[in-house]
C-alpha cells in the first residue's frame, strides 16, 4: 500500500471525474462547517446539489471575511509568528497573484510547502489526513483548481497522476505538467474547442503518464525569481 493511502480517502464510486471530485471535496467542507463531518448522507446530498447546480459554492467575499476574522495567523498551522502569505497555487505553476489565491502563512509553513501542490504537501510531506486541511484554504483551492481544470479541459478526466485511482492528489497533477504552458496560456487557445472528449487526448500526450511528484523540480526560473522577490520584500 502506498504511504499516501494512509492520509487520503478514496471517494465513493459515484465520484468518477475530476469535476465530481472537486464537488465531493467541497461537499465535505460544507459538512464540516455545518457540524456534519463524516456524515455520508449529508455529504452526498450536498454533493448532488452542487453537481446539479442547485447549490452554489460560497462566494469568495464570504471566505475573505472569514479569513480576516481569523486575524493575522497562519492559515495552515495557526501560528501568529513571522506571518507573510502563501500562493495556494504556486505562481510558478500558473497561480495568480490575486487575493483568491493568497492566504496568511507563517515562514515555517511557507518554506515547507515551497512550490508543492497543496494536497501533495499536506499528505506527503506533513503526513496529515486530507480532511484536516483548514477549510478556508481547501475551499479557495477547490475553486481555483476547478477553473484550472476547466481551462486545461481535464474536468472529465478520471485519473491524472497515472496511478489508476481518483484522489485529491490528482487535482494538482495538471499543474506544471504541460511544458512551457500555464493555465492562462491554455486559455488563449481558441475558445471554440469543446472540452468534452479532450481529456483522453491529453492523457495520451503525457498528463496521465507522468507522476505529480515529479513536477516539484519543474519550477521555471522566472517563477522562482518572482517568489523570491516577494519573500525578500516581506522579509520571510
Ligand atoms: Zn504555519
Describe the structure.
The protein is built from nine helices and two strands, in the order αααββαααααα. It has 236 residues and is mainly α. It is globular. It has one domain (3-234). Helix content is 42%, strand content 4%. The chain has a two-stranded antiparallel sheet with strand order 1-2. Residues 179-227 have low confidence and may be disordered. The structure holds zinc ion. Zinc ion binds next to strand 2 and helix 4.
Attribute tags:
236 residues; mainly alpha; binds zinc ion; 2 strands; two-stranded antiparallel ribbon
**Helical element count?**
9
Bound molecules: zinc ion
Given the C-alpha coordinates, what overall shape results? globular
- The strand order across the widest sheet is 1-2
Class by helix and strand content?
Answer: mainly alpha
Element-by-element helix/strand order: HHHEEHHHHHH
- Helix content percent band: 40-55%
Strand fraction equals under 5%
Largest sheet: 2 strands, antiparallel
Total discrete domains: 1
Number of strands: 2
Euclidean distance between termini CA atoms: 38 Å
Mean pLDDT: 78
> Low-confidence parts, pLDDT < 50 over ≥5 residues?
179-227
Radius of gyration: 17 Å
Amino acid at each position: 500500500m502506498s504511504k499516501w493511502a494512509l492520509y487520503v480517502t478514496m471517494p465513493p464510486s459515484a465520484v468518477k471525474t475530476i469535476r465530481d471530485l472537486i464537488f465531493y471535496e467541497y461537499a465535505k467542507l460544507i459538512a464540516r462547517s455545518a457540524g456534519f463531518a463524516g456524515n455520508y448522507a449529508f455529504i452526498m446530498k450536498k454533493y448532488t446539489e452542487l453537481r446539479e447546480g442547485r447549490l452554489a459554492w460560497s462566494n469568495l467575499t464570504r471566505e475573505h471575511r472569514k479569513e480576516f476574522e481569523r486575524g493575522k495567523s497562519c492559515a495552515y498551522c495557526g501560528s501568529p509568528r513571522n506571518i507573510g502569505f502563501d500562493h495556494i497555487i504556486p505562481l510558478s505553476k500558473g497561480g495568480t497573484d490575486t487575493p483568491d489565491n493568497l492566504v496568511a502563512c507563517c515562514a515555517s509553513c511557507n518554506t515547507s510547502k515551497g512550490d508543492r501542490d497543496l494536497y501533495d504537501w499536506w499528505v506527503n510531506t506533513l503526513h496529515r489526513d486530507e480532511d484536516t486541511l483548514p477549510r478556508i484554504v481547501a475551499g479557495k483551492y477547490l475553486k481555483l483548481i476547478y477553473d484550472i481544470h476547466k481551462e486545461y479541459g481535464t474536468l472529465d478526466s478520471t485519473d491524472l497522476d497515472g496511478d489508476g485511482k481518483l484522489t485529491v492528489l490528482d487535482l494538482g497533477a495538471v499543474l506544471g505538467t504541460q511544458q512551457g504552458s500555464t493555465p492562462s496560456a491554455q486559455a488563449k487557445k481558441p475558445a471554440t474547442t469543446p472540452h468534452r472528449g479532450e481529456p483522453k487526448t491529453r492523457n495520451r500526450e503525457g498528463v496521465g503518464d507522468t507522476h505529480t511528484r515529479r513536477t516539484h523540480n519543474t519550477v521555471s526560473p522566472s517563477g522562482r525569481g518572482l517568489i523570491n522577490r516577494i519573500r525578500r520584500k516581506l522579509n520571510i
